[in-house]
Specification:
The complex is a heterodimer of chains A (472) and B (306). Chain A is mostly beta strands and 472 residues long. Chain A has 5 helices and 40 strands. In chain A, strand 30 and strand 31 form a beta hairpin. The longest helix of chain A has 22 residues. Chain A is globular and about 95 Å long. Chain B starts with 6 loop residues before the first strand and ends with a strand. Chain B has 6 helices and 24 strands. The chains are: A mainly beta (472), B mainly beta (306). Chains A and B meet through strand 1, helix 5 and strand 39 of A and strand 3, strand 4, strand 5, helix 2 and helix 3 of B.
Chain lengths: 472, 306
């Protein structure tokens, strides 16, 4: 009986072989509880390689296969048989890896992973709004008002956007005689939003700026402004605009308002060169003393960001001191410090973020002796600076600890992590983190612990848990 | 295996008088805006003052809460790992009070499992408070229109029908009854002239087929690719992506189907019934669909006829 069964299997396989030979092409198929790759050695290496890739045969290349080296496939669990010009790889469907996922969502969410957060705008250098009727504007109080004209007969109107994590509950607008309003505090930046009118999603029809999220959704775009270019004089000019490195030379029109030409926009932190165009002729900003030549053209300079003063005490005998770091792309001689009576100093403007840096004293790279925050990667230790932090991590107690470090998925679980500062009876560090989910732990003299001040944690593969933090 | 509706996680609800309370709210039909995370359907709900995202998951029997945010709820029963619902260690049963779906549907009391849902959060990159399983809608009907991102929640008349004025579509292309066992929806389908039982699961981001279904079906699949995937818990398993031409549900032929072939034994154990396959996103994204839990009827209005 058993021999018969074998014979039958053999016959079947022979049949499939002859079929493959007849077709002279590579195939992958499932048959009798097995998955099989039929490789015709007369096909091109590219075709064979793509078949091996489709079959997920780890480590095996067409080149090896054609030279009779089947080791990677065999190691990966495949039976390999060669006959004439056919090489057959097969494996049982049931002998590899029991699927321990006990719910469909675990199985499929493991396959479909989102790399980015749809509906959350990426950083842009600048932005200007474009409304056919202004439905979003800033109030004197600093709040931003969203307005939906009409629709007063519906039960409710909601505002949903990345600013409230696309909530369908939280952004309940208030009914007025002429429509619906909602006021909220927004930081300068780019926002996506939609309206939910009587339960139905809709873009803001009065807002001409929309973006497709790539998944079939069209979102309205609003820029919360943070800068106004102003030019006095030229009352009879036909056209005044501003052009700069932030918009790659494109022109943003300015409007005459109370005797001043004005151009409002959202501008991301950074260092920019710009000029005004008056009736098509470029001029520098007469109200700005900071200028810089680029390609022999004089430009005005605009520094957007936080004013930071780098200070190094002592080293008064040194000839040259520079600061270098992530904010200067580690350019070693871009940012020289000026000598004072007691040391060296450099005021500089940096955009919000987390930065590593070092001083270079006559060619010697040193960490900032006045900064307790350091980070080590690949055996190199740098000083660590955070501009406009939005999260402070605090660990109370542990006063006998030698070092306390913070590490997490945001630095690939680097065991050196960020060094916390010991102040009073607690250890702290502040960071600037983008919106999203973060997993982290503290390392106390090498011992991993969950954050005792945070109740939210999730299990990890070691069974020891990770603290969970959402930045919203 | 215990009978549904009486025992949950080893607790006899009748003796404890602890079953889910009936939903209430002043409506005939509710229009609830939904969101999407990958192929998942997200609905916002509120527990006491906590508002957040829930996955609409007909593959879950009832309300399931994410342990990250609900670990401190009082336990009414600790579950063994791989217990009745096959969930991970540390899973327990709790009672939730003051649960609201959208603005207008309220529950005074719901039984919930509290378990680790970090896998979904990390893969979808959105905060997930829990899963809305079938029992949440047990006395209602729901219609989902993915093209408009809307969920309709219907109250039913005494015959268990949606009020005719509140129907979202009149002439369904697909109409079939389903079996409702252990709070899972099972729909009969046909692939390669073989009849098989699918679980209907809005939490499945793709259709799935078990390795062990009829050899005739397996043979008819065109392999797209094969992969080893590392799952939650670190164990690796095999999945095969395949394509097949025709899937018949309720006499309607769905043409050109994608399916993930894997070992679904453990998923079957969690359902309490062996399952040949799972109808997921590739299926339910084809049209507006209604699930009537009272009449145990599934209807679909196809977006694009082929």
């Amino acid at each position: 009986m058993r021999t018969l069964k074998h014979l039958f299997t053999m016959l079947l396989m022979l049949c499939s072989l002859t079929a493959a030979i007849a077709q002279k092409r590579n195939r992958i198929m499932m048959l009798r509880g097995h998955i099989m790759l039929i490789v015709d050695i007369n096909t091109s290496k590219t075709e064979i390689d793509s078949l091996l890739k489709v079959g997920g045969v780890t480590g095996q290349t067409a080149d090896m296969l054609l030279h009779g080296n089947y080791k990677p496939a065999i190691k990966d669990g495949w039976n390999v048989k060669a006959k004439k010009n056919i090489i057959k790889l097969d494996r049982s469907l049931s002998d590899t890896g029991q699927n321990t996922q006990i719910t469909p969502y675990l199985l499929s969410s493991n396959v479909y992973k989102n790399n980015s957060r749809a509906g959350y705008p990426a950083d842009v250098a600048y932005g200007v709004n474009n409304f056919s009727r202004v439905t979003v504007h800033e109030l004197p109080s600093g709040l931003t008002r969203f307005f939906v004209p009409g629709n007063t007969q519906v039960k409710r109107v909601q505002l949903s956007g990345n600013f409230n994590n696309w909530s369908t509950i939280k952004g309940n607008m208030n009914r007025t005689d002429s429509g619906w309003v909602y006021d909220m505090r927004l930081e300068a930046g780019k926002y996506y939003y939609k309206l939910i009118i009587g339960g139905n999603w809709t873009a803001d029809t009065y807002n001409n700026l929309t973006e497709d999220d790539g998944l079939g959704n069209t979102n309205s775009v609003y820029y919360r402004y943070n800068y106004t270019f102003r030019l006095a004089g030229y009352p009879s000019a036909r056209k005044v605009s501003v052009t700069g490195t932030f918009n790659k030379g494109a022109e943003i029109p300015m409007r005459l308002k109370d005797g001043l030409w004005e151009g409002q926009l959202y501008l991301h932190d950074g260092n920019y060169l710009y000029r005004f165009m008056v009736n098509g002729s470029p001029i520098t900003d007469p109200a700005n003393k900071l200028t810089q030549k680029q390609n022999n053209v004089l430009n005005s300079v605009l520094l957007m960001g936080e004013n930071i003063t780098f200070k190094l005490n002592g080293y008064t005998n040194a000839r040259k001191v520079y600061v270098t770091g992530g904010f200067s792309n580690w350019d070693a001689d871009m940012l020289p410090l000026t000598k004072t009576a007691t040391g060296w100093v450099l005021p500089y403007t940096i955009s919000a973020g987390n930065y590593q840096y070092k001083f270079i004293v006559d060619g010697q790279w040193i960490t900032d002796p006045a900064n307790p925050h350091q980070i080590s990667t690949d055996g190199k230790t740098n000083s660590f600076l955070v501009v406009r932090p939005n999260r402070t991590f605090t660990l109370k107690g542990y006063s006998a600890a030698h070092t306390v470090r913070l590490t997490g998925d945001f630095i690939n679980w680097n065991e050196q992590g960020y060094t916390l500062e010991h102040r009073g009876d607690e250890w702290t560090i502040s960071l600037r983190l983008k919106p999203g989910k973060y997993l982290y732990k503290f390392l106390i003299d090498g011992n991993w612990i969950l954050d005792p001040g945070n109740k939210q944690w999730e299990q990890n593969q070691f069974g020891t848990g990770n603290s969970v933090l959402w930045i919203e | 295996m215990c009978k549904s509706g009486i025992m949950i996680g080893g607790i006899n609800l009748k003796t404890l008088e602890l079953g889910d309370s009936d939903p209430y709210g002043d409506f005939k039909v509710l229009t609830v805006p939904i969101k999407r995370a990958g192929n998942l359907i997200i609905v916002e709900a509120q527990i006491d003052s906590l508002v957040g995202n829930f996955v609409l998951d007909t593959g879950a029997p009832y309300l399931v809460l994410n342990a990250t945010y609900f670990r401190d709820l009082p336990k009414i029963n600790e579950q063994d790992a791989g217990g009745i619902n096959g969930r991970t260690g540390g899973t327990f049963t709790a009672v939730v009070h003051n649960f609201s779906l959208g603005f207008d549907l309220h529950y005074d009391r719901l039984i919930a499992d509290v378990t680790d849902l970090s896998g979904i959060e990390n893969s979808k990159k959105i905060k997930i408070l829990g899963l809305l399983g079938t029992r949440v809608f047990a006395k209602l009907a729901i219609t989902i229109d993915l093209s408009k991102n809307l969920l309709y929640i219907h109250k039913l008349d005494k015959q268990g029908e949606i009020l005719s004025a509140e129907r979202v579509f009149d002439k369904p292309d697909v109409k079939t009854t389903f079996k409702y066992m252990n709070d899972v929806i099972f729909i009969k389908g046909n692939v390669s002239d073989k009849s098989i039982w699918f679980a209907f699961d809005t939490g499945a981001e793709t259709n799935m087929l078990d390795f062990h279904v009829s050899k005739k079906i397996i043979k008819s699949l065109q392999v797209i690719n094969r992969n080893n995937v590392v799952g939650v818990g670190g164990t690796s398993y095999e999945i095969i992506y395949a394509h097949f031409d025709k899937l018949i549900i309720g006499d309607y032929p769905f043409i050109s189907n994608r399916v993930l072939v894997s070992n679904l034994e453990n998923i079957g154990k969690a359902y309490g019934y062996t399952v040949d396959g799972i109808l997921g996103y590739d299926f339910f994204a084809r049209g507006i669909f209604t699930i009537n839990f009272a009449k145990k009827e599934f209807e679909m209005y196809i977006y694009n006829h082929q």
